Amino acid sequence: MGQQLLIYNTLSRQKELFRPINEGHVGMYVCGPTVYGDGHLGHARPAITFDVVFRYLQHIGYKVRYVRNITDVGHLEHDADEGEDKIAKKARLEQLEPMEVAQYYTNRYHSAMDRLNVLPPSIEPHASGHIMEQIALVQSILDAGLAYVSNGSVYFDVRKYQEDTHKYGQLSGRVIDEMLATTRELDGQEEKRFPSDFALWKKASPEHIMRWPSPWSDGFPGWHAECTAMGAKYLGSPFDIHGGGMDLVFPHHESEIAQCVASTGHAPCRYWMHNNMITINGQKMGKSLGNFITLDEFFTGSHKLLDQPYSPMTIRFFILQAHYRSTVDFSNEALQAAEKGCSKLMEAYKALGRIAPTQNAESGIQNYRQLCYDAMNDDFATPTVISHLFEAAKTINGAADGKVKLSQADIDELKGVFDTFLFDILGMRDEASEGGNGQLEDGLMQIILDIRAAAKANKDWTTSDKIRDSLNALGVTVKDGKDGATWQI
Fold it and tell me: Is residue 202 classed as helix, strand or coil in its secondary structure?
C-alpha cells in the first residue's frame, strides 16, 4: 500500500488522497441493479468501473469488503414516491410472483456479469431480506424528529432537516429553495407536508403484493432506505467508498446522506464515487427512456441498431477506454475500434512468446509498469493505462519484426506489465484462446506455418503463396519476419 491513490470525491468536487478509516481495510458499497428486466450497457458501466476499483484496491494490498445490493422491492416507477413497484408491475404483466421476476433477472444479471469478467462482490444483500433493518432505520429517524407518519406512510421531513443541518443538496449541488419551486406534483402528494419529502415507508395499497408488517402499516420500504440500512449493516457507519451511477446522485444518494445524518449524526461514507452515463445519440441510455440495448443483444448482435455482435471483452474494453467520470456515446464505429484495439493488445501479448531474446541487449524500454501505476493512482485513469499498453505493444511488435532488440529481462518485464494491468487490474480476458481451443489453434497453425516454411525452403512458391492466400481468405494474416512467420486473426 505504498501507492498514493487519488480519488475524485463527488461531495468535495475534487481529487482527494485516499485514506481508509481502518488502515489496511476498505469498505465499499455500490448500488446494484433493480431486477425487473435484462441488464443493458448502462448497467455494465458501474459494474465494470467498480470491478476495476475493487481489483486495484486489492492489488495494492487492501483487504476489501465490497457490498453491491440487489433492489428487489420498493423502487417505484417514477424514481419517486408514486406509481407501481417496478418489480410488482412486471410480475402483474407476466402473471408471475414478484420474487420469481426478481430471481429470474438476478440470475440473468449474474450471467452477464460473469461474461464481462466482473468479479462477484464480497456480499450481495437483497433489499427484501433486510426489512427489519429498514424499519429500525425509519424508527430512528422518527425518534430524531426528522420524519412524520401520514396515512400509514412515513416521510422524511426535508424542510426540518434543512433547518437543523443545512445539508440537503450538498452532494448534488441543488439549492433546496429552487427544488421546492420545481418539484413536480405527483398523485398522492397531499400525504406529504412538502413536495420534496421522500418516503421512508409506504403503506401498501390493497392490490400491492409485496408487503410487510410495520409499526405504521402493512407496506414496504422506500427505495432510499434500503442502501442506508444495508451499507451500515455490512460496512459499519461511516464506511470508506460509496459508488454508483451519476444518475443516482439525486435523489437517491442525496437522500441516503440525509437519512444517515438524521439517524447517526454523520454522513454514511468518506468518498462518493460516480461513473458517468452511457449515451445513445446524446441521450442517457436507460430503461425509462426505452432507448437501451441489452447486454444479450450486444453479445448476439440482435438489436436493430447493431451492425454485428460484440463480444463481452469488446464491451468491457469499450467502457474502459473512457475515464469513468466522462460520458461514453454508443456507436458501432466506437465498438468496432474497441474490438480492433483489444485484439491488437492480445496479439502483442501472444507475440511476446515468439520473440528470441538478444543477448546483452541494452534495455531501452520505458518503465511501463510505473507509468501504469501512476495512471491508476490518478483516480483510476484506465484510458491512460490502455495508452501505455499500446505503446508497449508497439515495442513488442517492433521486436517481433526484428527492428527492436529485447533482452530476456525486457521480455519478462513486458509480460509482467500485461499480466498485471491488462489481465489482473483491467480484468480483460483473451477470448480467442478460451474454451480449451487456444492451444489446439496455436498447434494447428504452427503445423501449417512449418509446411509453408518447408515449401519456401524448397522454392515451392506456388504452395507457399496458396497457404498464405487460403489463410487470408479465412481472416488469418501471415507475416514473414527474420525469425519465421507469425499469424493473427
Answer: strand
